[in-house]
Automatic annotation (TrEMBL):
Belongs to the peptidase S1 family. Pfam families: Trypsin. GO terms for biological process: proteolysis. Gene3D superfamilies: Trypsin-like serine proteases. Keywords: Glycoprotein, Secreted, Serine protease homolog, Signal. It is found in: Secreted. Residues 220-229 have a biased composition (Acidic residues). The keyword Glycoprotein applies. Residues 1-21 form the signal peptide. It comes from Carassius auratus. Its main location: secreted. This is Inactive serine protease 35. Residues 144-209 form the Peptidase S1 domain.
Length: 425
């Protein structure tokens, strides 16, 4: 083998530096800290049962006709009644049944909790701006390490981020089109990056009879194995007796090349009522987020939620996120970029992205109050490619949904089930 070209060494070195910067604590930057603030109190008011979903909606790679930052500028701030309606939510359970929960909001500080935007109108078009600045995190010494390890793949073709051992934050349009749940949500699953599986049967010698808890754990593992077979290898089940050889060959040929996922079924999912069509068409883009509760807790470290008044006022106004872009199948893709504009609920930004990255958790890193330690927190959800209304014309941008104090309180309630645990960021 001949000498490695200098240009290749330089590229590898540059990528290593960038990945290390994404992983390691920054030094010599600013002394900005995460703001400590109280958030409104979101409490459940009433829950009613709904009929089962038909699961007829088709996935959307792009959202059209969205009322974005410019379109929303002339609107008044939502009243308390409006906000309570928008933050009421629907819960879909794994058996197909649904409930609608109305909420009350207490201790809402309008001036602080409904955050203002920058008013700037600098724009760029979406997808890849000239040179592709995305980085494929293929090496497992990085992809299985925080913060990249918090990124997950959704079986409907989106991405998401772990916000607790059992909860994933993603985009609402990844499971619901505003009218109905997507086809495939009946058996929605989440894939977490993992080390290559050990061979079955290893280390099982000497074990006695399994108790009830052990049997349940074994059943859950078998269910995960079935999900892995259907999603990770074949994506869709083939008729019995057909394609078996192809699946086995596919498994052998990709084990050393592509990441492996541990797939877990979703127990239930929650979507804010503000995402549903007919509730408030003008702000539907502001509520493109959802929480998925997994049947099994994950051992992977998760990322906390955070609220920041303005991203553009931070050094470089920089955000980060990782997802599973369609044009790089099976690989985790990381990017960082500056924010071009922000409103109360939305971010326009320059990050290169492709379909499949929608639902990724958008995060920044700031110092913890009173400490020198830096901490990453999720401050938004990447909604993806959206055609938004700009002065009566449709233009396409990369859009992320901001986590505001009321949304933080709502998501925190979904995750913890107890609003008393959601009093501050």
């Amino acid at each position: 083998m001949g000498p490695v070209p200098l240009t290749l060494l330089l590229c590898v070195s540059a990528l290593s530096v960038l990945v290390s910067a994404a992983l390691d604590d920054p030094t010599g930057e600013d002394d900005y800290t995460w703001p400590q603030r109280k958030v409104p109190l979101v409490q459940e008011k009433q829950t009613v049962h709904l009929g089962s979903s038909e699961f007829l909606a088709k996935p959307q790679t792009e959202l059209h006709g969205i009322c974005g930052i410019e379109c929303q500028q002339g609107f008044p701030e939502p009243s308390l009644d409006d906000l309570e309606q928008l933050l009421s939510y629907e819960t879909m359970y794994e058996n197909g049944t649904r409930t609608l929960t109305t909420v009350t909001i207490q201790e809402l500080n309008v001036s602080n909790d409904l955050m203002g935007g920058s008013g700037s109108h600098s724009r760029r078009r979406r997808e890849v701006y000239g040179t592709d600045t995305r980085f494929t995190i293929a090496d497992k010494q990085y992809s299985l390490k925080y913060p990249f390890s918090t990124s997950v793949k959704i079986s409907t073709g989106c991405s998401g981020v772990l916000v607790s051992p059992k909860h994933v934050l993603t985009a609402a349009h990844c499971i619901h089109n505003g009218t109905d749940y997507l086809d495939g949500v009946q058996k929605l699953s989440v894939g977490v990056l993992k080390e290559r599986s050990r061979r079955k049967g290893k280390g099982r010698k000497g074990k006695g009879r399994k108790g009830k808890g052990q049997r349940k754990h074994k059943e859950e593992e078998e269910e995960e194995e079935e999900i892995n077979e259907n999603i990770e290898i074949g994506e869709k089940q083939e008729p019995k007796g057909k394609g078996k050889g192809r699946r086995n060959r596919s498994r052998r040929s990709t084990t050393s090349e592509q990441p492996s996922f541990r797939w877990t079924r979703v127990k239930q999912m929650q979507v804010p009522k503000g995402w549903f069509k007919g509730i408030s068409e003008n702000v539907v883009a502001d509520y493109d987020y959802a929480i998925l509760e997994l049947k099994r807790a994950q051992k992977t470290k998760y990322m906390d939620l955070g609220v920041i008044p303005s991203v553009k006022k931070l050094p470089a106004g920089r955000i980060h996120f990782s997802g599973f872009d369609d044009d790089r199948p099976g690989n985790l893709v990381y990017r960082f970029c500056s924010v071009s504009d922000e409103s109360n609920d939305l971010l326009y930004q320059y990050c290169d992205a492709k379909p499949g990255s929608s639902g990724s958790g958008v995060y920044i890193r700031l110092k913890e109050p009173g400490k020198k330690k830096w901490k990453r927190k999720i401050i938004g959800v990447f909604s993806g490619h959206q055609w938004v209304d700009v002065n009566g014309m449709q233009q396409d941008y990369n859009v992320a949904v901001r986590i505001t104090p009321p949304k933080y309180a709502q998501i925190c309630l979904w995750v913890h089930g107890d609003s008393s645990q959601c009093r501050g960021t």
